[in-house]
Amino acid sequence: MTRSVYLSIVFLCFILTGQVSKAQEVDSTYIGFYDQKLSATLYIERNYLTLTSDEGEKSTSYRPNTPTKIGAGFSINNTAFNFAYGYGLNFLLDKDMGKTKSFDFQLHHYGRKFIFDVFIQRYRGFYVEGENQQITLYPDLKARQYGLHGQYVFNGKKFSHKAAFNQNERQKHSAGSFTLGGGMYMNRIESGENVLRSEKVELDNFQFGISGGYAYTWAIGQHWFLSGSGTIGANFSHERTDEGRKWQAYPTSFFRFAFGYNHEKWALALNYHNNSVYPSLGKDSAIELSSGTLMLAFTKRFDTMPFFSPKQK
After folding, report:
1. Which region is the signal sequence (predicted)?
2. DSSP E strand boundaries for the chain
3. CA 284, CA 276: separation in Å to the nearest integer?
4. Topology of the domain covering 3-308
5. pTM above 0.85, yes or no
6. First-to-last CA distance in the chain?
């Protein structure tokens, strides 16, 4: 990926962040806010990128051997500034599953009217778990994905993604919203013979499209919540075939779930994201690329720290 592409993604993120950080009118009957200006988070996280090859009636899933991460982060004024850093627990890896070299950056931003997700993922080295827990290693199998996914939230006045996935707001009463948007993805997959397919695979695919869905949060009692959202859609790509070039349609999906407890001073939440695209899709074969995150996070809210407070005269 060239530097110009990286800069374009970062620039677009800043634009979207600026658009969604503007004050929006909300229904205070449904959405509540916290008085604290500073919060700190400790989390355990697992990122992944899985390849699934379907050829005829045979389906094989190729998984990376990546570590669980522990990390910490903090935010000021919820959306004004936030930072997080994670450390991989490599010593917990099962060596029988081989070695995976990976770089996985995922950004999930939740605004009042717009949400967006950025994926920059590079993986080399996968394994397949067969019958009787037999492990087969594929150290030269490579997969890359660069993606941007966004959705418009129609009912942002009553429904809050932030309450479910960031814990910097509170969903007072159950509410939901339809969403509409789309995404674009650039994927590259390389494998030898008899891995993903019988022949050698060198696949480059760029696709873009539209998707829509629905999101809903159940407010359980005063503090508990359960949230789920899903989008499905179609991406399109201009492919080169033996008969020339033609447009090809691919299915896509994005699912999110969150469950937790929001107290006035702290929060504990488990959330999960899964995004699926198809870099290759034919009559008798398909390659699915599935990426996502599973995270358990504890957040502590603090009153304004002394160095953020006006000096007393």
Report:
1. 1-22
2. 31-33, 38-55, 58-62, 69-76, 81-88, 101-110, 114-129, 135-153, 169-171, 175-191, 201-220, 224-241, 244-262, 266-281, 285-302
3. 19
4. Lipocalin (2.40.128)
5. no
6. 54
